[in-house]
Structures are given as structure tokens and as C-alpha cells.
Specification:
Order of helices and strands of chain C: HEEEHEEEHHHEHEHEEHHEEEEEEEEEE
Distance between the termini of chain A: 33 Å
Largest interface: A-B, 87 and 95 residues
Shape of chain C: elongated
Chains: A mainly alpha (272), B mainly alpha (298), C alpha+beta (380)
Radius of gyration of chain C: 25 Å
Helix content of chain C: 10-25%
Number of helices of chain C: 9
Distance between the termini of chain C: 49 Å
Structural class of chain C: alpha+beta
Order of helices and strands of chain A: HHHHHHHHHHH
Strand order of the largest sheet of chain C: 6-7-8-3-9-10
Oligomer: heterotrimer
CATH architecture of chain A: Orthogonal Bundle
Radius of gyration of chain A: 23 Å
Largest sheet of chain C: 6 strands, mixed
CATH topology of chain A: MetI-like fold
Strand content of chain C: 25-35%
Chain lengths: 272, 298, 380
């Protein structure tokens, strides 16, 4: 596309990003507000953070959420990577169409339906609802996202690399372990991160399958903000937003730097 | 077929069968069952332990009364219609907001673009719930928007925005904006700049060149982005429950309340089945658009 | 040494009836669904050969090679390696190695580890692997680059790493899939000679797939010209060029004039080919019997056609025409001459003098002449 960066472009980008970021900036700012009113500034204070950390219910919910996210995203990454490999590489097998349908369906399924369906399954088979059922549900819907991320990487993967490994004496499993996996590792890692974030973030499905005994952080947030704005939630949001921001910015810096280094090395290689 | 290959296919396959497909079969079954006040609050129509006879009696006892109920009770079909209306309008609004952003990004200098990309993606990694919540303090009666409106003198007293459909539109546009911007941006970025130069060389003005060349070529991105907003917006639950009011009818919210507040599982299941049937059309259209794109890329 | 090499017979195992082939394709057919990639193909390849598979894309040459590597199985027919049917042997147990078109270097491993990759999966003791890798690095002159990753070396160096990696296990047979396709022209020519050198040093049998006829002619001991899954001609480069067996081969390899006509035997194994109304017939020497009245194609290379302003004396064939176009290529010039019936015949002249007397120009009347053995008679 030819670049004619005009005033119109600059204005639309500025307004667009203002729209995207202003609400979050306001949210973060007012987490440091002295007053309980979230819309009137009454001086700087960190007291809501203190209250947040003294609130055992929040700490428990955070712990449950973290546990669920780590376990479910790890299992989902293993299953999702396998599914991606099956979709891209396994060729034809009976039921392939249904398989790929089941991989893509959860991506577009409204969460209320997925949640309802899962809950009815757990009740039908008589499984007690709690942390375990949340983990099962999260594995199921996040593995599909992992599989999409990994399979798009696998689709562009030069298949002759695997053939070269076979040609040089690898068994198919050995070829996967020592050639394919190291090369697609970045996609697997981003699949894991995506699954982890989705699990941390999920409210609706957890709400359905959690039962009375387990509460995740989003469930806790939802039940308190339903009653109105609450500075303690602003403090919690600020913490979560900072974690994500630091994570995304450092990930993009790392990848930017490694791309730059790779380019420089390629240039140097051409000159030698 | 060797053992490893079999395991590779079977593990994810079996998982999805048990935790995805079978649950939907159960939803369908309950949607066809009768309501009963018990826990679980339904009487199963299909008695699996009765074998073939059970199946036969299942077929004869099979009734669509929950679906008839949905059709008869105005609450449900107005909820479906109002969900459709809200989803269509907010998709269109997201397109109006998102296209100029994507266009500006595609025109931006090369060295800015990774940063701009990151800025679009960043909200996506941030909690959905928090992003919706952040609008509550802006849109409330004492909120920042009303403060701004009164300060500029546009209104004398605060207007009700939170707990109206307007707030729901704002929430949907805000949370789903990255889904609209990214596909349009990637379509525009692929565009060969010499095409616009050729159009201008052949006598188009800049605006004509945009409508005759740029926009048609970015259409796959527009279509993809619209579906990515429309499909989740239709079944949305969090946004109408936090930003919408009691008059905001969206089917996701109705389903949730039917299930948790009224504890009418058969009707909730029937609502889910109908919602799925409605969603199949846009999902199939979306898949076809993606397929066409993939073929065009090859 | 000189004595020996002078007495050494020409390398031509395909002419020796006692020689056993290393590879034998017996009536091999390969189908992909309805598409026939290889059509009932029978072929022998001998030890120490540098065998080139040449043809346009989609002719089946890559499929043939992938069957040797084990990535495809024949639909019918057998492939024997050293007399043993290789169909049931998976690629990782075959004594063949392949150099991939994309090189397929493992991006996450260094040059050293790439070369050692196959050795580590063989029964070679660990302490010998290092020495073998060093040996291969010396062979391709990349000792200094052992620690680099593939993206840190140039395209030509990557090509040599790929070659070293595929040679490291000392395969009975090395398969090269368009090995020089990614290199620019100058580097490609240098590398062709390097490949021949390495082939001779290691004594490995090479099978190379290429669509570049010049490359096939340069490196190969024999060239197989393929089309639509069939072998059209298998022969040494010079015979492929000088005595093509079909219009397809004549046209595929190098530049050629093809003149269609009707043959009539003239005695002493000669034929006269009537090709245009009112023109003298072309006198030619066919390889076999030609029946009277048979439709034939007469193929003659442009460099075998002489061009003069006067009618030459004592040439078996002379055709008059007008110069239509002249292409000056530095070392040679090509004249496109329009003869009877609007037909174009190309003549090529070596520019052996620096400043030639440009006595032939556009629209000049000229004579094209050639001997009665200069061209090939191909039956339609």
C-alpha cells in the first residue's frame, strides 16, 4: 500500500486509540483515589490496594483462578497441539470432518451455550461441581484456540524439514520431537499464553460449571460490580492490566529484537 | 495405522466427543423433555436403560412443547429479534469506527506499524470483564461522560446512558473493536500501492480511487471482521448484564436467567438450541468467506 | 598414473551386459487418485553414475525421486535397490539420502549439528561422529562455519551444508532435488563443477532432478528426458543432443529447427524429404528404415546451418531465403531466415573475428546450407 500518511489518518488513529485506552486510563487513575466515589477525585491514596490484599475472599478467588489457568492451559496446550497435528498432518481418517468441526465450533460458540452444555453433562454423569469441573470446561474450550494457533504455524511449516529428518534416519516420533517441536515451539508457547489468558478471563462458562463451592476471580469481580462501581475492583483491575501490559510489551520487544538480530545476521551472511 | 498415530488422533478426538459433542446431545435431549420441579429439574424423555423400547417410547413421547412455548411467549422472540438488532447495529458501528483506524494503520510509516499493532492487540489480552467494567464509571449518571456534557453545556442535567441500549452498543463496539480492526488492517496492508496510483493515473480522484479500488479490495477483511463481531455479539451476556438495563433484552441474558433464576432447564436448553440454529447461518457464511480467502491467497 | 587413465575404459556400465544395476525400476506406475504421475516406467541406474532426470514441472521426475527416498510408494511395479525390493522399507531405514530443493536445513541447529544429525541416528559410535563431521566440513570447505546457524550463512553455503549433511552417512545413493535451483546463475555454474568433483571423490551414485537442461547436460553421465510420467529418452548428454529420438526431446534440449515433410528413400540409406512446393528436397540420413511417403520431422540444430550470400558449391542441401531478424549475442549471432511458405529457419554463426564484416543484413537474400548428415530424421 502506498504510504500517504495524511492528517486524516493521524486523526483517525489518535481518536481510535484514545477510545481504546481512555477508559482504562481512567480506571487505573481512580484506583488511586482517596474517595469511595469512583467519579470524583479526592486525592492520591493506595488504601484500596491495602483493602484488596486484606480481603480473603479475593485472595482465595485469585488462587483458584491461577490454579485453574495453569492446569487447564497446560493440558489444553498438549491436546490442542495434538489436534493441530492431526488436522494438518494426519491425512484422511474416518470422522475427520466431524473432528475439524468440533475443533472450530467452540471458537464461535456463544459462551452461554458452551457453559450450559457442559453443566448439563456434569450433572448427567453425576460429577460434583467445583474446581475440577471448571478445569475440565476450560481445557475443552481453550484447546481449540491452541489448536488454531498451532495449526496455522504448522500449515506454513516446510514439510521437507520433517522428510529430511526421516531421510536421515529418524522415526516419525523422533522427527516430531527433534525437528518439528523445536521449530513450532514459539507457536506452542503463544498457544499456551492464549489458553492461560482465556482461562483467567472466563466468566460465563465458569459461572455455569463452578457450582457453589468454587469462585474464580472473574466471578468474584462480576458479583461485586453488578452492584455498582467499586474502587477495590479498580485496584484489582489496575494490577491485572499492569501484568498484561508488562507481559505484552516485553514479549513484543523480545520478538522485535530477535527479528532485528536475525535480519542483521542474514545480511552479514550474504556479504561473507 | 500404528499405535502412536491412533493415540495422536484418539486423545483429542475422544476429549472433544465427551466434553463437547455429548453435552450438545444432552442439551437437545433436555430441550425435548418436560419440566418438573425436582433436581435435576426435568423428567428425561429418553430412558437409556430401557434399551430399544425406551428409544421407541422416546420417539413417541418426543414433543416440541418447549419450542412451541418459545414461539408463543413474546418474551423469547422479542429477545431473539432484539439480540439480532443489537448485534447488527453494533457490528455496523464497529465497522464505522474500526475502518478508519485500520486504514490509518496501513498508511502509517513502516517503523510505527509493529507498535500500532501491539496497541490494538493489547486490549485483547486484557480482561474482557474489566474492559466492560471500565465503562460503568464513565457512563453512569454522575459519570465522566455526563460531567463532560454538562461542563460543555450540551446538557443541563445528567442523562441516563448506563443501563440503556446505548451503553450496550458502546460496550460492544469497545470490546470487539480489535476483532474488526485486525482483519481489515491485514487486507489493507497486502494492498499493492501501485493499484491506487494506477487508478489516479487513469483519472480517478483520491476519493474515487478509494471507493473503486481500496474499499472493494479490503472487502474480505470487512466481511471477516463483521462476522467476528456479529457472532459473539449475538450471544453476548456480560455486556447487557453490566451496561444494559432491565429493558435490554438479549438472548444470552435471557438464557442465563431462565437457567439460574427460573431454574427452567428445558426452556433454557430450547433457547440454546434455537440460538445455535440462528448462528449456523452466519458461521457457515463466515467459513465460506475464509475458505475463499485461503484459495485466493494460494 | 597417466598410463592407467589412458587405458581406462570409458565409463559406460549401461553398455556392459554383465554389470548389475544399482537401481531397477520394473514397470512402475504411480497414481495420485486419478492422476497418473508415473506411467509403467522401466529404468536401470548403475553404480557411480551421475544420473539426471530432466523434464518440465509435473512430468513425474520428483515423484520418481520421492519413491526412491521412500516418501511415496509405487501403485504397481517394483523398485529394486541392489536387487532388493525397497517398497516395505521406510525412509529412515533406507541406504539413500536426499538433498532437498529447499535444502531443509534445521533452522534451530548449527551447521555442525545439521551434518551430525543423521550420524547420531546411525550405528556410528559417538566418538567417530566428530571426525566424520569434520571430514564433511572439509569436503565442502565450510570448516569455519561449523558453529553458525543456517540463517547466518549465505545461500551458496547453505547449499553445501545440505550436500554435506546428505553425504555424511555415506549413502549408496544420493538424491538431489533441484539442488542448484535457488542459486544465481554464476554460482550455479561453479557449483555444478563442484558437485561433479564431489561425486567423483566420494564415488557415490547421484540421481539429480532438474528442469534446467544445461545443468543436466553439464553434470550427468546419462540424462533421462521425461514427459507425462513416461521416459522419452535415456542416453548420454551428447547423444541426447545429437540424436534425439523424438521431436519432444529435440525441442526440449537446446535450440532446433523442425521441418515437417514427406520422405522418399533415395538409396544408400538416404532419404529425400519434400517439405515445400517448388523447393529442392532435403537430403538426409535417417537412423533406420523410412517407408516411402512417410510423414517425417527433420530436426536440425541452428549451429549446423551455414549462412552465405552466394549459393554454396558442393553442399548437399541449400535453401534460399530472406533475413528476417538478427540476434547478436556476443559470442554467436543467430539469423532468422524466412524461406518458402513463410517458414522460419534459424542459423547460428560463431563470431570468431572481433570485427566482422557485416555483410549480411536485414532483408538480404541469403543461402542456408547443411550436409546430409547434419540433421536428424524423426518419424511422426
Amino acid at each position: 500500500m502506498n504510504r500517504r500518511f495524511s492528517w486524516f489518518n493521524a486523526t483517525s488513529i489518535t481518536l481510535g486509540f484514545a477510545f481504546l485506552y481512555l477508559p482504562m486510563i481512567i480506571l487505573v487513575t481512580f484506583s488511586f483515589n482517596e474517595s469511595k466515589l469512583v467519579t470524583v477525585w479526592a486525592g492520591f491514596s493506595t488504601k484500596w490496594y491495602g483493602e484488596l490484599f486484606r480481603d480473603q475472599a479475593f485472595l482465595n478467588a485469585a488462587w483458584v483462578t491461577l490454579k485453574v489457568a495453569v492446569i487447564s492451559s497446560t493440558v489444553a496446550t498438549v491436546l490442542g497441539t495434538m489436534a493441530a497435528y492431526v488436522i494438518v498432518r494426519a491425512g484422511r481418517f474416518p470422522g475427520r470432518t466431524m473432528f475439524s468441526g468440533m475443533i472450530y465450533a467452540p471458537l464461535v460458540m456463544p459462551e452461554v451455550i458452551t457453559g450450559l452444555a457442559m453443566l448439563l453433562l456434569f450433572i448427567t454423569i453425576g460429577l460434583d461441581r467445583g474446581v475440577f469441573t471448571i478445569i475440565l470446561a476450560h481445557i475443552t474450550f481453550t484447546m481449540c484456540f491452541v489448536s488454531v494457533v498451532v495449526s496455522s504455524r504448522l500449515a506454513t511449516f516446510d514439510r521437507s524439514l520433517e522428510e529430511a529428518a526421516l531421510d536421515l534416519g529418524c522415526t516419525p516420533f523422533d522427527a516430531f520431537k527433534s525437528v518439528t517441536l523445536p521449530i513450532i515451539a514459539p507457536a506452542v508457547v503463544s498457544g499456551w499464553l492464549l489458553a492461560f489468558t482465556l482461562s483467567l478471563d472466563d466468566l460465563v462458562i465458569s459461572q455455569f460449571v463452578a457450582g457453589p463451592s468454587a469462585t474464580t476471580l472473574p466471578m468474584k469481580i462480576f458479583s461485586s460490580v453488578r452492584l455498582g462501581v467499586n474502587p477495590q475492583i479498580n485496584a484489582l483491575s489496575t494490577i491485572l492490566i499492569s501484568i498484561v501490559t508488562v507481559g505484552v510489551i516485553s514479549a513484543s520487544l523480545i520478538s522485535k529484537r530477535s527479528i532485528a538480530r536475525q535480519r542483521a545476521e542474514e545480511l552479514a551472511a550474504v556479504r561473507t | 495405522m500404528n499405535i502412536r498415530r491412533l493415540f495422536l488422533i484418539l486423545a483429542p478426538y475422544a476429549w472433544l466427543l465427551v466434553f463437547f459433542l455429548i453435552p450438545f446431545a444432552i442439551v437437545l435431549k433436555i430441550a425435548l423433555s418436560d419440566y418438573a420441579i425436582s433436581i435435576p429439574p426435568y423428567t428425561p424423555v429418553l430412558d437409556l436403560s430401557a434399551g430399544w423400547d425406551g428409544f421407541k417410547s422416546f420417539l413417541s413421547a418426543l414433543d416440541f412443547e418447549n419450542f412451541t412455548f418459545l414461539a408463543e411467549d413474546a418474551l423469547y422472540y422479542t429477545a431473539y429479534l432484539s439480540s439480532l438488532k443489537i448485534a447488527i447495529i453494533s457490528t455496523f458501528l464497529t465497522l464505522l469506527v474500526g475502518y478508519p483506524i485500520a486504514y490509518g494503520m496501513a498508511q502509517a510509516p513502516d517503523e510505527w506499524r509493529p507498535t500500532l499493532m501491539m496497541l490494538v492487540i493489547l486490549p485483547f489480552w486484557t480482561s474482557f470483564l474489566i474492559r466492560v467494567y471500565s465503562w460503568m464509571s464513565i457512563l453512569s449518571n454522575e459519570g465522566f461522560l455526563n460531567q463532560l456534557l454538562m461542563w460543555t453545556g450540551l446538557t443541563d442535567s445528567s442523562i441516563q446512558i448506563l443501563n440503556t441500549n446505548t451503553a450496550v452498543y458502546i460496550g460492544i463496539v469497545y470490546t470487539y473493536l480489535p476483532f474488526m480492526v485486525l482483519p481489515i488492517y491485514s487486507a489493507l496492508e497486502k494492498l499493492d500501492g501501485s493499484l491506487i496510483e494506477a487508478a489516479e493515473d487513469l483519472g480517478c480522484s483520491r476519493i474515487q480511487a478509494f471507493w473503486l479500488v481500496t474499499f472493494p479490495l479490503s472487502r474480505p477483511g470487512v466481511i471477516a471482521g463483521s462476522f467476528l463481531v456479529f457472532i459473539p455479539a449475538l450471544g453476548e451476556f456480560v455486556i447487557p448484564s453490566l451496561l444494559g438495563g432491565s429493558s435490554t433484552l438479549m438472548i444470552g441474558k435471557v438464557l442465563f436467567e431462565e437457567f439460574f433464576n427460573n431454574r427452567d432447564w428445558p426452556v433454557a436448553s430450547a433457547v440454546a438450541v434455537v440460538l445455535l440454529l440462528i448462528l449456523i447461518i452466519p458461521i457457515v457464511l463466515f467459513q465460506r468467506n475464509e475458505q475463499k480467502q485461503r484459495e485466493a491467497d494460494q | 598414473m597417466d598410463q592407467q587413465s589412458a587405458n581406462r575404459p570409458v565409463f559406460a556400465p549401461w553398455n556392459d551386459p554383465n554389470e548389475k544395476p544399482l537401481i531397477r525400476f520394473q514397470n512402475v506406475t504411480k497414481k495420485f487418485g486419478e492422476f497418473i504421475a508415473i506411467d509403467d516406467l522401466t529404468l536401470d541406474i548403475y553404480r557411480r553414475e551421475f544420473f539426471a532426470l530432466l523434464g518440465p514441472s509435473g512430468c513425474g521426475k520428483t515423484t520418481l525421486m520421492r519413491m526412491l527416498a521412500g516418501f511415496e510408494k509405487p501403485t504397481t511395479g517394483t523398485i529394486l535397490l541392489d536387487g532388493q525390493d525397497i517398497a516395505p522399507i521406510p525412509p529412515n531405514r533406507r541406504a539413500t539420502n536426499m538433498m532437498f530443493q529447499s535444502y531443509a536445513l534445521f533452522p534451530h541447529l548449527s551447521v555442525w549439528d545439521n551434518i551430525a544429525f543423521g550420524l547420531k541416528r546411525s550405528d556410528m559410535p559417538a566418538d567417530k561422529i566428530g571426525a566424520r563431521v569434520e571430514e564433511m566440513l572439509r569436503l565442502v570447505r565450510l570448516e569455519k562455519f561449523a558453529k553458525r546457524k543456517p540463517h547466518q550463512i549465505s545461500g551458496g553455503q547453505r547449499q553445501r551444508v545440505a550436500l554435506a549433511r546428505s553425504l555424511a552417512k555415506a549413502p549408496k545413493l544420493l538424491l538431489l532435488d533441484e539442488p542448484l535451483g535457488a542459486l544465481d546463475k554464476k554460482l550455479r555454474q561453479d557449483t555444478q563443477f563442484e558437485l561433479m568433483d564431489i561425486q567423483e571423490k566420494t564415488g557415490t551414485t547421484f540421481v539429480i532432478v532438474t528442469h534446467d537442461q544445461e545443468e543436466a547436460m553439464t553434470v550427468a553421465s546419462r540424462v533421462a528426458v521425461m514427459d507425462h510420467g513416461r521416459m522419452i529418452q535415456v542416453d548420454t548428454p551428447d547423444r541426447i543432443y545429437e540424436t534425439p529420438n523424438s521431436v519432444y526431446v529435440a525441442d526440449f534440449i537446446g535450440d532446433v529447427n523442425i521441418i515437417e515433410g514427406t520422405a522418399a528413400p533415395k538409396g544408400e540409406g538416404m532419404v529425400a524429404i519434400a517439405w515445400a512446393e517448388g523447393q529442392p528436397e532435403i537430403a538426409a540420413t535417417p537412423a533406420g528404415q523410412v517407408a516411402k511417403g512417410a510423414r517425417v520431422h527433420f530436426a536440425i540444430r541452428p549451429e549446423k546451418v551455414a549462412i552465405t550470400t552466394e549459393k554454396p558449391e558442393g553442399r548437399a542441401n541449400a535453401i534460399e531465403g530472406a533475413v528476417h531478424d538478427i540476434a547478436y549475442l556476443g559470442n554467436i549471432s543467430t539469423y532468422k531466415v524466412e524461406v518458402a511458405g513463410g517458414r522460419m529457419i534459424k542459423a547460428q554463426v560463431a563470431n570468431d573475428r572481433r570485427i566482422s564484416r557485416r555483410d549480411i543484413s536485414w532483408d538480404d537474400r541469403v543461402w542456408l546450407s547443411f550436409t546430409d548428415t547434419a540433421g536428424v530424421v524423426l518419424l511422426s
